Amino acid sequence: MEVAVSCLDENAREVIRPIKRMVEDEFLSRPGVIGVDIGEKVTGGRPTGRAAIVVYVCAKGPDLPQQIPQDVAGVPTDVVAESIVLHRARITRTNDEQPVVAERHPVLRGGISIGPARSFRVVPPEVPTAGEYVIAGTLGAFAVTRDGERKVLGLTTFHVGCVDDSWSVGDEFVHPSRVDGGVVDADQVAVLDRAALAGSVSAAGLRMGNRPFRAEVLDVGAIMGSAKAVVGSTVRKRGRTTELTYGVITSTDSTLRLDFGDGIGVRTVRDQIRVHSSDRFGDHGDSGAVLVDADNFVVGLYVAGSGSTGFANPIEPVLRQLDVELLTPGVPESRRPGPAA
């Protein structure tokens, strides 16, 4: 797969990075600004070949570009209209509605549907109509805690695993999600064990139950470990909604303001991985999928997107904040609590 997209030289990024960091919080405080990044300046729809501080805005109105200086310390800026949203799926349920028909996997792998067993009361303006909603996301991969217990956890995002500020350790999870027809109790596969929402991380770890699992991602294969995201490299993700998609890493410098909803509010996440695809890279329900490189090393945890653009946490801070390491086929069976893979 080829994607026609420019990936700037790392030397140019190194020069711009401290300048971007110096101004990004001030830019993010301006109305309508939702992100600051490093990318190629585009003028009149044509790439210029010049590295720039890219400012994402929710709507490129007539006044907003004038709020951003044309350059900062000699580095040009570029204002880009984007609609970047968290990619969990959330629907309301009535007695007359039928669940989405989803994949059911007797042996769990990464890349499949998962969601909380409980429902959530949501009101406008978050949703059109107040009511009880259920959530769907993606079980990305498996990890093992670094403590003596060596618990096996399934990785997903904070906004899938916790949803709002009413979460607690022990919350139950089902596969498939309730959005996809999962049944409370009958389809329970895990409980919430830990979570993190800070810095560059929106993540949760779900302690797996008695359902068999394998240390692999559906349609991708066995996970070999973790690696650093590299600008210009091709990655894949397998999500609950869009399934297997491909893209190219175009930045590891994205800073975003994301709305986590009532009780959590808008949070800033930094140093996010930006992925560009020739088609739709992700959609609602894909949050929690892992980004995997050509050698099946995990480089990121998918959180949000906008059409052909996706954003992911870098995987190393995720593992560090959850205090886990990725589970791979090379981990000895004696170190695998719970079901054998």
Automatic annotation (TrEMBL):
Belongs to the peptidase S1 family. Keywords: Disulfide bond, Hydrolase, Protease, Serine protease. Signal peptide: none annotated. This is Trypsin-like peptidase domain-containing protein. SUPFAM superfamilies: Trypsin-like serine proteases. InterPro entries: Pept_S1A_streptogrisin, Peptidase_S1_PA, Peptidase_S1_PA_chymotrypsin. It comes from Lentzea indica.
